[in-house]
Design brief:
There is one protein chain. This protein is of the alpha/beta class. The protein has 15 helices and 25 strands. The strands form five sheets. The protein has a nine-stranded mixed beta sheet with strand order 2-1-11-10-12-13-14-15-16, with helices on both faces. It has a seven-stranded mixed beta sheet with strand order 7-6-5-3-4-8-9, sandwiched between helices. It has a four-stranded antiparallel beta sheet with strand order 17-18-19-20. The longest helix has 17 residues. The N and C termini lie far apart (69 Å).
Length: 545
């Protein structure tokens, strides 16, 4: 048997050779740009030649600070396939975190989207290793910038050949991408992905998602976040048409237009996007979802009532996925099994509302944190989710202390608490730090949030624990009302709605109404920020500050 290395290079060359006319589409505010896999491969080859001319060699880190567009797609393959390591920078991180990770990764070149270059300027003098800035400009005009030395992307690559001798006799375990966690606690932690890991992850997710060459994928998940959940790699592997919406992902009318005009068949996004889209649809927004096979949600739990509404009102099946930066990222998908075809629609929605079952190639355990024993597959007993597999990280980049904490025994300890049904579907209960213990009983902030968001007058809800003299902790609900009831909604309405939805002792005594909930850099509710800002105000009112 031939021992050929598993490289992203194979995906790139396979797509260009066998699907040369398939499209990659970028949607900009100024219009739509289209080109083919053949065009993309030629420009990616030019990029590789340009990098080599700049002295970039095997293992060097090259950073991107960009939205989802075709030039970013060229970096996704051109950088790792020529031997370097692409470091995708999260544009939503704080200045402090960005300075830390650029210096920590020792990035040599920084490719920046023309829409966000100004975010780098204020701290450019703190970047110790950057040798050149490259502006990725669709307009073709160099902006007025203090970055130096600086060049336009297209000017950088234009004089290089449209072919490149990409090395294929190399170690598949060599690093190809590096992504840092979003730093909800401490400094961001670097996760290094290998060619082998991303190739195997693409195979497994492609099988689990049922990706077909006839599909058309809309990449809503930012390419700076956990490899856009691996979608650009899996889609290139199968030669799919790919649509990159850039900053248009926040414009729901434009998003619906893209879905209809490009005949999108599937897309992945965080609940925040799907909540925004649902609100747009509920207000009568124009849409045509006839082409969609599936929408996938991940990053945090999607409220069941929204999954139900998408299917029953708009004819769109939505499922959930679960993973982390450390897992490349997909661990589970909540697609019902073929043996469940006879289930009712509501029963199937119950399955899609779970985090899903492990995809092929992974070992997943749920372990009692006190006894260290595996919990029962009964859908009731809770345990921490542990994962290992060929694309799961085993360490953090240059961080042995945190590595020892998170990967102590060959397993990735996620810090997430869940249950597993007899069919193997995992339901997330909470993060270990977010579980609420009231009078000795556990309350799941996730389940309570989903129950509250089932109320028609509520747009979003996040639940945190509030110290309590009598009960140790009580749930505190932070609620964003629907726009038309901001002035009339009451705490008592929500409490009354919850009476037949959750246990009586789960119902929050305190409900705080807010204009918006703080979000993390990847769109999750920022409960750390809520604890820092909301709880002190309540304790002060109680005279306990």
């Amino acid at each position: 048997m031939m021992n050929s290395p598993l490289l992203l290079t194979n995906f790139m060359q396979h797509a260009a050779r066998y699907y040369p006319t398939k499209e990659i589409v970028s949607v900009y505010a100024t219009g739509t740009f289209r080109y083919t896999y053949d065009d993309w491969y030629k420009r990616t080859s030019q990029l590789a030649g340009a990098l080599r001319s700049l002295g970039i060699k095997k293992g060097d880190r090259v950073a991107s600070f960009s939205l989802n567009n075709h030039r970013h797609m060229e970096l996704y393959f051109g950088v790792p396939c020529m031997g370097a390591v692409l470091h995708t920078l999260n544009i939503r991180l704080s200045v402090e975190n960005l300075v830390y990770i650029i210096n920590h990764a020792e990035d040599r070149i920084l490719f920046i989207d023309e829409d966000v270059y100004f975010l780098i300027e204020p701290f450019k003098d703190q970047l110790k290793t950057i040798e050149k800035y490259v502006i990725m400009s669709q307009s073709g005009v160099m902006p007025q910038t203090s970055l130096s030395p600086v060049v336009l992307y297209d000017d950088l690559i234009k004089d290089f050949p449209e072919t490149y001798d990409f090395p294929i006799d190399r170690d598949e375990n060599e690093p190809c991408l590096i992504c840092y966690t979003s730093a909800t606690t401490g400094d961001p932690k670097g996760v290094v992905y290998s060619h082998r890991g991303l190739v195997l992850h693409s195979f497994a997710t492609g099988v689990a998602l049922g990706v077909q060459e006839t599909d058309c994928s809309l990449h809503i998940v930012p390419m700076f976040h956990a490899n856009a959940w691996g979608a650009p790699f899996a889609c290139t592997m199968r030669g799919l048409k790919q649509v990159l919406p850039g900053r248009q992902i926040l414009d729901m009318a434009t998003l619906c237009r893209i879905i209809a005009e490009e005949k999108i068949t599937f897309s992945c996004g965080v609940p925040t996007i799907w909540i925004m889209l649902h609100s747009y649809l509920e207000s009568g927004g124009a849409h045509d979802f006839s082409s969609i096979r599936y929408l996938f949600s991940g990053g945090s739990a999607m409220p069941r009532h929204l999954i139900e509404s998408y299917e029953k009102q708009y004819g769109v099946m939505m499922a959930q996925g679960y993973g982390a930066t450390e897992t490349s990222p997909v661990v589970t998908l909540s697609v019902p099994k073929s043996s469940m075809e006879t289930m009712s629609i509501d029963e199937k929605i119950d399955i899609r509302a779970t985090a899903g079952m492990p995809i092929p190639g992974l070992d997943v355990r749920l372990v009692n944190t006190e006894t260290g024993k595996d919990v029962l597959m009964d859908g009731k007993e809770m345990g921490e989710i542990l994962v290992r597999g060929p694309w799961i990280a085993s360490e953090y980049y240059k961080d042995p202390k945190q590595t020892a904490i998170t990967f102590p025994d060959g397993w990735f300890h996620t810090g997430d608490i869940g249950t597993m049904s007899k069919e193997g579907y995992i339901s997330l209960v909470d993060r270990t730090k977010d579980l609420i213990k009231s009078a000795g009983e556990w309350i799941s902030s996730i389940d309570l949030e989903n129950a509250i968001m089932g109320f028609s007058k509520v747009l979003e809800a996040a639940v945190i624990s509030l110290p309590d003299d009598k009960w140790q902790e009580r749930p505190l609900a932070c609620v964003v009302p629907q726009p038309d009831v901001v002035k009339t909604i009451t705490k008592e309405e929500i409490q009354d709605y919850l009476k037949d939805k959750v246990a009586k002792w789960w119902i929050p005594d305190e409900i705080v109404f807010m204009q918006e909930l703080p979000k993390t850099s990847v769109g999750k509710f920022n409960k750390k920020k809520l604890r820092e800002t909301v709880i002190p105000d309540i304790l002060k009112k109680r005279g306990k500050a």
